[in-house]
Amino acid sequence: MTDDTGPSGPGGSAHAVLGPDDVARALRRMAHEIVERHHGSTHLLVVGIQRGGADVAAHLATQLGEILGTPIDHEDLDVSFYRDDIGESPLKISAPTTLHSDLRGRVVVLVDDVLFTGRTVRAALNALLSFGRPDAVDLAVLVDRGHRELPLRADYVGKNLPTSREERVIASLEGVWIERVS
């Protein structure tokens, strides 16, 4: 853990919770947990939720490939059109979906940077299932900050980080910060 200040936004500077080495260790541990759960399966497909989950997913897929000794497929998924708040604010297309794999017979590890209310994950599940029916879907998140509005939980968590609703969590491969927004 570190006490450096990080990204700055409307609420001011953010307090660092994890540094780059901490994030790398957490992702390595998560990769080992995935391998252990799926007994070394090479039928894994790592899918990052655009934007925040894409870089985390790419790094996780690399870690899995190193552990298993074979490359693990990694693709990205934009959930913009599957959100339940699509009519409440202007549509923001985050980044393109690169998911083109046949999901049959695959174990999909859906990856995001921060798990908060669960609504983005719900949208991601709907989007993912429009590409077919995988054998299983696991959820991996770098940070679980609580405050769920839907009955979802992550299978693999880098860091459980209790927060208040007045805080924002910023997570990337470079670290994790908490910022007070009000």
Count of individual domains:
1
Number of strands: 9
Q: What is the name of the CATH topology?
A: Rossmann fold
State the helical fraction: 25-40%
Let me know the largest β-sheet: 5 strands, parallel
* H and E string: EEHEHEEHEEEE
Number of helices: 3
Query: What share of residues are in beta strands?
Result: 25-35%
Anisotropy-based shape: globular
Query: What distance separates the N and C termini?
Result: 24 Å
CATH class: Alpha Beta
Find the structural class using helix and strand composition.
Answer: alpha/beta
Q: What gyration radius follows from the Cα positions, in whole Å?
A: 16 Å
* Low-pLDDT segments: none
Strand order of the largest sheet: 4-3-5-6-7
CATH architectural category: 3-Layer(aba) Sandwich
Instruction: Report mean pLDDT, rounded to a whole number.
Output: 89
Task: Give a verbal description of the structure.
This protein is of the alpha/beta class and 182 residues long. It has a single domain (24-166), classed as Rossmann fold. It has three helices and nine strands. It has helices at 20-37, 52-68, 119-129, and strands at 5-9, 12-18, 44-49, 73-77, 107-115, 136-144, 156-160, 167-172, 175-180. It has a five-stranded parallel β-sheet, with helices on both faces. Strands 1-2-9-8 form a four-stranded antiparallel β-sheet. Strand 3, helix 2 (52-68) and strand 4 form a beta-alpha-beta unit.
Structural descriptors:
single chain; about 180 residues; alpha/beta; Rossmann fold; 4-stranded antiparallel beta sheet; 3 helices
